[in-house]
Amino acid sequence: MDNLNYGIIGNCRTAALISKAGSLDWCCLPQFDSTSVFAKLLDEQNGGSFEFILDEGYQVHQEYHPNTAILVTQFSNGTDVFEVHDFMPRHHKLNNGKYNAPPEIVRYIRYVSGKPTFRVKYDPRLEYGLGETKHYVKEDFIASLTRQQKYDTLFLYTSFNKNDVLEGNEITLTQDGYFLICYNEKILKATTEKMALELERTKVYWLDWADKTPNYHKFGAQIIRSAITLKMLTYDKTGAVLAAATTSLPETIGEVRNWDYRFCWIRDASMVIKVVSELGHKNSAKRYLQFIIDLMPDKDEKLQIMYGINKEKTLTEKTLDHLDGYKGSKPVRIGNAAYKQKQNDIYGILMDVIYEQLMKFSNDIENGEELWSITKGIVWIVGKHWKEPDKGIWEFRGEDRHFTFSKVLCWVALDRAIKVARIFGKTHKIEKWTALEQEIKEDIHNNAWNSDINSFVQSYGSRHLDASVLLMESYGFIHARDPKFVSTVRAIEEGLSNDGLLYRYKNEDDFGLPSSSFTICTFWFINSLFKIGEEEKALEHFERLLGYSNHLGLFSEDIDFKTKRLLGNFPQAYSHLALIECAINFSKKRSEERILESIR
Fold first, then answer.
1. Which of 15, 108, 335, 584 has the maximum number of C-beta atoms within 10 A of its C-beta?
2. Where does the signal sequence lie (predicted)?
3. Do residues 365 and 357 lie in contact, with contact meaning Cβ atoms separated by under 8 Å?
C-alpha cells in the first residue's frame, strides 16, 4: 500500500521530505512557504526529485539518528553497504547566541563496506516546475536555473564527479562523500571534512535540544520524536508555527479537500506552544508570544485565524494547474482563502496560551504591559462578538453557525483573562468580566446541550455530534466526571467512532461526507476516555493508533478508515501535539502508580 512513508528534515527555516527509498521529493527554498525546488510528492513526472538508483540486490533501511532530526537511510546488499545522512544544518554560531541555519540540505554519504555502486537522478524543478530548469556544470558546482516564469537558481556542490552526477552515470563508493544543495552560492569551498563537521555540529544541536525535554517513563521515544517534529515546524525568524510542511496533500485520494498548510494558524500554533512549553522549551513560547504581539498593533484590530510565517495578512489562494497533485488529487493550491474567515474560538485559544506562559514563566516575561493590553483587547472583542455565528474550528465554507466549540472558547477567553487580571493585580476588571463569563457559560448549557441524545452538539439547536466538544473538559469548562461530559463522550464514541478512529463530524459539509479520520480527533477521544476513568480502554486505543504512524513514527492530518493509510498534509503539528498530550497523561499515571507502589 502506498503511504506517506517520508521522513522530515529541517532547520527551523525550511524543511524537506525524504522517502523511505532515500528520494528527496519535497523541498521549498529558501523558506517553508517559498516555491518548491523538489515536488515529486505533488507530481511524479514534473515535480522534480533527487534520487539514488541502485540494483535490486540492495535492501533499504531508514531511521532517525536517535534524538535528532538527522535521517539515516542505509543501502546494503550484504557485502556493499553505505548510508545517506540527510539533514539541514542548524547549530550555534560562535559567541553571539544565534543559530547558523542556512537554506541548505546536506546529503552526507557514509561509506560502510565493500564497493557499493549507485547512480543519482538529480532533477530539481525550480518555481514549482512552472518553467524549464536548465543545468550547467561549473568548476565548483552544478548550477540549475529557470528564467521563464521568474528567475531562480540552485547550486549543487559534491565530492563526486559532477558530470557523472548530472548524467546519471554509475558511481563506485570507496570513501565518504557528500552532496550539498544550496539556495545561495557558497563563499568558502565545501569539502567532505567540512560536511562531516556540519553533521556533527547539527547532531550536537539536536541532542542538546532533546536533552532539555523531560524523560517520561512511558512513550518517551514517541514524545521526543513528536517534540522534534514540532520544533522543525517552527520558523525561527518570527516565532511562527506551521500547521504542516506541505501543501495540497489530500484528505481523501482523488477529492478536492487539498489545502496549503505552510502558514501559521493561531489555533494550531497556540496549542503547539502550550505543549512545547510544558516540555520546558520556553524560548519557542517567548518567540511565539512576540509574534502575536507584533500582529496586534491596534487595540481594535481583530485577529485573523491565520497569518503568513513572516506575518503576512493576505494569503491569496491560487491553483497550480500544471501539477497532477498527490496520486492525481487536484487541485494543487498555494495560499489559503480561509484567512478571511471569522472564527471566534481563536481568542480563547490565545488567552489560554498567554495565561499558561504567565503561570510558567512569570519571572521571565518581558512584555507584561503589552500582554495586559492584548488581554483587555480580547475581552472587548469577545464581549462585542461572542453572540455572533462563525465558521467554526473546521472552517466550514458555507453559512455561519453558532458552533459550540467557538462559544466554549469565548468562555475560556473570559476565564483566562480574569486569571491574568489577578496575576497583574488588576482586580477592578474582575467583577464586570465575571458577569460576562457566567452569561456565556449559561448560554452554552442552555443551547448546546441536546437532552434527546444526551450530548453537547456541534452547534446550537442541532443534533449533530462533533469531536471538538471533547475539549470542553481539557479547557476547564466542565469536570471530567460531570454526567453531561461522560454521556457526551459515550455519544461521540457511538456516533463518530469507526473502527477506533474518529470522524470530526458526520453531517455533510461543503464537500460531502468526510471519508477519512481526522487524527487529532482520535487523540482527543483517547484523552477523554482516560479522563472519565476508562484508562485501560484509552491505552488500548492509543497503542493501536500509534501503530498507524509511518515507519518513523510520524503522522499526517488524516487516516483512511478502511486502509489506515496516512492522508492529508504532513507531518501535521496538530496530530503530534495531541500525541504528546496523550502520552504525557499515560506517563504521569504510570509515575503515580510507581510512587504508590513504593509507598506501600
1. 15
2. none
3. yes
Measured distance CA(223)–CA(577) in Å, rounded: 9
274 vs 272: CA distance, rounded Å: 5
Question: H or E element: which one contains 206?
Answer: helix 192-211
Distance CA 232, CA 358 (A): 25
Residues facing residue 85 across a β-bridge: 72, 108
C-alpha cell at 310: 513572516
Pair 41, 70: CB distance under 8 Å: no
H helix or E strand, kind and range, residue 540: helix 535-546
Residues 153-159 have a mean pLDDT of 98
Do 219 and 587 form a contact (C-beta atoms < 8 A)? yes
DSSP 3-state assignment of 501? strand
Summarize pLDDT for 294-311 with one digit per residue, the tens.
887 666 667 899 999 999
Q: Which amino acid is at 43?
A: D
Separation between Cα atoms, residue 90 and residue 111, nearest integer Å = 24
Is there a contact between 322 and 328 (Cβ–Cβ < 8 Å)? Answer: no
**pLDDT at position 592, please?**
59
**Which amino acid is located at 133 in the chain?**
T
CB contact set of 571 (below 8 Å; sequence gap of 6+):
8, 229, 233, 244, 245, 554, 555, 556
Q: 57 in helix, strand or coil? A: coil
CB 129 within 8 A of CB 322: yes
DSSP code of 542?
A: H
Residue whose grid cell is 521530505: 17
Report the distance separating Cα 526 and Cα 534, nearest Å: 9
Rg (alpha carbons) of the chain, rounded to whole number: 25
224, 291, 377, 459, 534 from 369: Cα distances, Å = 34, 16, 12, 36, 44
d(C-alpha 221, C-alpha 122), whole Å: 34
For 94-106, what is the HEC assignment?
CCCCCEECCCEEE
CA distances for 204 relative to 42, 74, 89, 98, 270, angstroms: 33, 21, 11, 15, 28
* C-alpha–C-alpha distance, residues 176 and 196, integer Å: 9
The DSSP output letter for 79 is: S
Contact status, residue 309 vs residue 263, Cβ threshold 8 Å: yes
In eight-state DSSP terms, residue 448 is S
Other C-beta atoms lying within 10 Å of the C-beta of residue 584: 18
Mean pLDDT within 453-472: 96
Per residue in 57-85, pLDDT (tens digit) is 999 999 999 999 999 999 999 999 999 99
- The overall longest dimension of the chain from CA atoms, in Å, is 77
- Residue 370 to residues 237, 293, 375, 405: CA-CA distances in angstroms? 21, 7, 9, 27
422 within 8 A of 430, measured Cβ to Cβ? yes
Residue by residue, what is the 3-state secondary structure of 391-424? CCCCCCCCCCECEHHHHHHHHHHHHHHHHHHHHH
